[in-house]
Amino acid sequence: MATMTSGRHGIIRVGRRPGRDRGDVRAQRNSLRRTVFLVPGIALLGLLGVYPLIQLVWMAFHRVTSATINSGPWEWVGLDNFVQGFQLGETGPAITRTLVVVAIVTVFGMVGGFAAAVALRTSGWWSSALLALMVFVWALPPVVNGSVWKFLLSDNGLVNAIVMALGRSTPIPFLYDTNWALLSVAFVGAFAVIPFNALVFRAALLAVDPEIFEAAALDGVNRWGEVRHIMMPSVRPTSLVLLVLTMVYAFRSFDFIFVMTYGGPGTATNTLPFLGFLQAFARFNFGYGAATSVLAVIVVLVLAVIYARSIRKEEA
């Protein structure tokens, strides 16, 4: 862009240097190119992510059943779907079960992942074998993983065979007792998330300068001292991010419940996401199920905001 200055013979037009102009044009082209590349991603995100979310919230405030889902307009019911869930005694217990699952998966997933990362940090055939096994477990589809655990935890499964070999007279009802079923599903969820957490923790530990461990060894620090004073402080920034991710994973617990217990026995393993699924796709009360799912979405959104702030703080 040219600028104007006043001189002795009137206004004089002063042009910018050609190199600077070319730089501005190149910057504009790069900005336009980035915008063009973003358009398909934004369009897909809006189509597959934002639009279904808006539709879900809209359904939560209407009476939508199998008879009315393809006809409109839907009847507006306000907060009735949300209130009905608590009045019928379904939403409150489901929230409690969800919190139990989140607590078990988060604690065992974080502790187990860190312990595995410490073990995998050392070199040797057994650490390589353990790493390969954990990657294999992590890569298994949840349906396959859940089916394997359903077999292992059955009355004639491997776990009960070991328990009865140790002296117990009857098998433990892992999958059909109201208390054991929820614990079993939560344990399998924790077992499934440990490999991912271990790989993330291991990457953080490998970034620690080896000279720090050598200096600690010269000072006589034992293995527990290395874990407490070197490894745990080193993974602290990673731990916060991983904690939020693990909580989100636990809160979305659905796959293992669907395969192992289908919400039973009774309602013993009906967590919030699975309850929403049953209400919408088993009872065909889509408005009611959407209201339950909206509650789950709100919690996930809160965790997503915490995760984003943690990432920003770590990158600062």
Word description of this protein:
- The chain is mainly alpha-helical and 316 residues long.
- Helix content is 72%, strand content 4%.
- It contains 13 helices and four strands.
- The chain has helices at 18-60, 80-87, 91-121, 125-139, 142-152, 158-165, 178-206, 210-218, 223-234, 236-251, 255-260, 272-281, 286-315; strands at 3-7, 10-14, 62-63, 75-76.
- A hairpin with a 2-residue loop joins strand 1 and strand 2.
- Helix 1 runs antiparallel to helix 13 and helix 7 (178-206) packs antiparallel against helix 10 (236-251).
- It is flat, with a radius of gyration of 28 Å.
- The two termini are 36 Å apart.
- 26% of the residues are buried.
- Mean pLDDT is 86; it is low at 1-12.
List keywords for this structure.
single chain; 316 residues; mainly alpha; MetI-like fold; two-stranded antiparallel sheet; two-stranded antiparallel ribbon; disordered N terminus; transmembrane; Carbohydrate ABC transporter membrane protein 1 (CUT1 family); transport
